[in-house]
Write a structure and sequence with these properties.
Helix content: 55-70%
Strand content: under 5%
Number of strands: 0
Order of helices and strands: HHHHHH
Structural class: mainly alpha
Largest sheet: none
Amino acid sequence: MAKVILYNIARFAVLILIQTFLFKNIGYYNLASPFPYILFILLLPVGISNFFLYCLAFLIGITVDAFYDTLGVNAAACVALAWGRILFIRVSLQTDHYEKYVTPNWGTVPFRWYFLYTFVLTLFHHTILFSLETFTFHQFHYTFIRILLSCIFTVTIILLFSLLFYQKKQR
């Protein structure tokens, strides 16, 4: 358990640093912006309490907001992502087959489930994030393209990170 806590503290710090110093400056004509910091929320243990999950999601979102000079948009999207994660895991994963402190990553769950989990929750996060950022339906097509391209970019980076830190099947 202490090992899981240390991994998550290190993951939090590394993802915040990478997000704010590297990925903040990467983008494709303001259409595709990567947000791999959500990987922290996605890789939290399956058996984490909902209250603690919401607190950690708010903490990482407000930290990114502090570096991006946004007024709580990332925090709101991260808390919504935490809610979506709870719902997705409850509906699609049989948690009694997994230990309480297992993280849902490539080595512990099937790849198809992991890809669907990452894609659906990233799409949900980006929809909330960009909808709150624009807060209008005036240029809906532009916002929709931005959501899709950013989602594809973020999922690609998350899968590359997962491949980079892939461990042999633990099941």
